[in-house]
Amino acid sequence: MIADKITDLIGDTPLLKIPAEVHGFERVTLYAKLEMLNPFGSLKDRTAWGIIRDEIENLRNSGKTIVENSSGNTAKALQAIAGTYGVNVRLVTGLARVKEQRDAMVHLGAEVEEFASASDCFDPNDPNDPQYLIQKAVQSNPERYFFPSQFTNAKNVAIHYETTGAEILRDLGHVDLYIGGLGTTGSSLGINRRLKEANPRTTCVGVTAEKGHFIPGIRSLDQMWESGLFEKENYDTIMPLREKEAIDAMMTLNRRIGLMCGPSSGANYLGALHYLRDNLPKIEGNVTAVFLACDRVEWYYSYIRERAPEIFRETPRPASFAAFDFNPFQGAPAIQPDQLESWMAENKPLVIDVRSKIAFNLGHLRDSMNIPQPIFESMIDEARPFTEDRPILLVCAVGEKTKKHAAYLVNQGYRAFSLDKGMRGIKTPGRSAPPRPAVGA
N or C: which end of the chain has fewer CB within 10 A? Predict the structure, then answer.
């Protein structure tokens, strides 16, 4: 095969049959769709090319800059493709949580603007939200910027309907079960539509991260943007998984069949195993199942080492923040917004706001200190940086991140609390708020 352009190599990826002695189910033929073999290493190569393909010549001629909300595979692919056309890319994102991904973006030439502690859930009321910032910039300078908006662009769905789903049907002819992780949800929506056209009884399983767990490329159910591409009714089952079990499943694929895929692929494989374990006895006949092997493991070595250092023959630190096993939405102590004034007056806590400096400067609780989330997590992971004779109140944008921080500190012997609903519960326009003396700017 000879290709004229690198984009000619996107798509047409093979299916790899997972041996029955590995997955352990009789009557099941399980395949991995090897999206990691796309030229830039991931499923998102299709997404990036699909949403800028019709625009790229105009972008080159007009000198516009592509601006996107991404810190991972879509960002890499956009930059790699745009670079071949001489088009600039600017990435506005929450803090890139995987070092190798950020390094790849910078290596390829992207301009990366990060906002520490930007909310994982898109929030148009949050002035630090990447989606909000990009939309505002594009509206102000439409002649300067082009916003692909992978989280809302229908082309994200269409490219997977037209290519990924069609390829699966071409190679297999019939699919009973499809399993894919939910990020933008464009791939799962497009693939599932194509598969169900051929077989309306195809079951679609959407894999999410359990609350408080981070699996690169996969979001929790609470992190789906309601006005975006997510359609809950598209999925017969939505399955939340934990990061460590996704890594363990990834290691099975890495070591037992030589499939050098990353954590989201492990999550998809595990989603298939869980669904088959629970439902195969109720299914008659043979089952043909497909999951996505989304990208390569090398992008995630720092992420894996932090959570499973034993894989690299390093000694785990049992008390580390990354190794702490918790469900932050059960048992984590929290202060309700309507109780805040009286509770602060009575307890005189040390108040720590883990949002970015920009968001903190726009409004914060009186006498609070600003320690952005990455710095804060590093502090509590490495030492005992705070006095134990005062309670600690932790504050973030929507109250989600600090629940797990509070749970960890309580486990370390502190009297720690999170502010329920975060600053959104205090100052969101149109909602009642505690007396203003509690808030400063």
Answer: N
Q: Are 225 and 219 in contact (CB under 8 A)?
A: no
Gap between the Cα atoms of 87 and 131, Å rounded: 21
> What are phi and psi for residue 66, nearest 5 degrees?
-80, 130
> Up-side HSE of residue 168: CA atoms within 13 Å toward CB?
36
User: pLDDT tens digits, residue range 397-407?
Assistant: 888 788 889 98
- In the chain, the number of structural domains is 3
Would you say 430 and 407 are in contact if contact means Cβ atoms under 8 Å apart?
no
382 and 258, same domain (yes or no): no
Q: Are residues 186 and 37 in the same domain?
A: yes
119 plus 184 within the same structural domain: no
For residue 168, the domain's CATH number is 3.40.50.1100
Mean pLDDT for the stretch of residues 134-145: 78
Does 25 lie in the same domain as 112?
no
Q: Is residue 65 part of a domain?
A: yes
Beta strand pairing call for 392-395 and 350-353: parallel
- Evaluate whether residue 136 is within a structural domain: yes
Whether the pLDDT of residue 438 is over 60: the answer is no
Side-chain half-sphere of 339: how many Cα atoms within 13 Å?
12
Same domain for 130 and 251, yes or no, is no
CA within 13 Å, CB half, 434: 23
Say how far apart CA 44 and CA 73 lie, in whole Å: 6
SS3 letters for 220-278?
CHHHCCCCCCCCHHHCCEEEEECHHHHHHHHHHHHHHCCCCECHHHHHHHHHHHHHHHH
Residue with tokens 């000619």: 8
The bridge status of strand 89-94 relative to strand 111-115 is parallel
Chain position carrying tokens 């352990």: 24
Q: Which of 236, 272, 292 is nearest to 25 (CA)?
A: 272
What confidence tens digit (pLDDT) does each residue in 300-346 have?
Answer: 999 999 889 999 999 877 677 776 766 655 667 899 999 999 999 99
